[in-house]
Amino acid sequence: VFFNGANVRQVDVPTQTGAFGILAAHVPTLQVLRPGLVVVHAEDGTVSKYFVSSGSVTVNADSSVQLLAEEAVTLDMLDLGVAKANLEKAQSE
């Protein structure tokens, strides 16, 4: 859990139908996440970025957002060398 009950300005999510930004009063929706970056823009202007592998995002009528991901890590936790090696291995199989 990275955020729970936090008030944020915007959340950008990658989905199967394209990336989009979620602001207050967004239309309720349910989307399937694709691998990519989730970007959280806090009220104080700070930005947090997370890599997600897959999952779902729900935008509720009360402007709350529920993001469920199989894997979610901060960018500083990623090892680019290992990621590239795993990608090459997966593509060769």
UniProtKB/TrEMBL annotation:
SUPFAM superfamilies reported for this sequence: Epsilon subunit of F1F0-ATP synthase N-terminal domain (SSF51344)
Phylogenetic lineage: Eukaryota, Metazoa, Chordata, Craniata, Vertebrata
Subcellular location: Mitochondrion inner membrane
Parts forming coiled coils: none
Positions of the ATP synthase F1 complex delta/epsilon subunit N-terminal domain: 2-72
Full protein name: ATP synthase F(1) complex subunit delta, mitochondrial
One GO CC term, this protein: mitochondrial inner membrane
Pfam families per UniProt: ATP-synt_DE_N (PF02823)
Keywords: ATP synthesis, CF(1), Hydrogen ion transport, Ion transport, Membrane, Mitochondrion, Mitochondrion inner membrane, Transit peptide, Transport
Membership in a protein family: Belongs to the ATPase epsilon chain family.
Keyword Ion transport: yes
Transmembrane regions: none
Domain of life: Eukaryota
InterPro entries referenced in this protein's UniProt entry, alphabetically: ATP_synth_F1_dsu/esu, ATP_synth_F1_dsu/esu_N, ATPsynth_dsu/esu_N
Gene3D superfamilies on file: F0F1 ATP synthase delta/epsilon subunit, N-terminal (2.60.15.10)
Molecular functions (GO terms): proton-transporting ATP synthase activity, rotational mechanism
Complex formation: Component of the ATP synthase complex composed at least of ATP5F1A/subunit alpha, ATP5F1B/subunit beta, ATP5MC1/subunit c (homooctomer), MT-ATP6/subunit a, MT-ATP8/subunit 8, ATP5ME/subunit e, ATP5MF/subunit f, ATP5MG/subunit g, ATP5MK/subunit k, ATP5MJ/subunit j, ATP5F1C/subunit gamma, ATP5F1D/subunit delta, ATP5F1E/subunit epsilon, ATP5PF/subunit F6, ATP5PB/subunit b, ATP5PD/subunit d, ATP5PO/subunit OSCP.
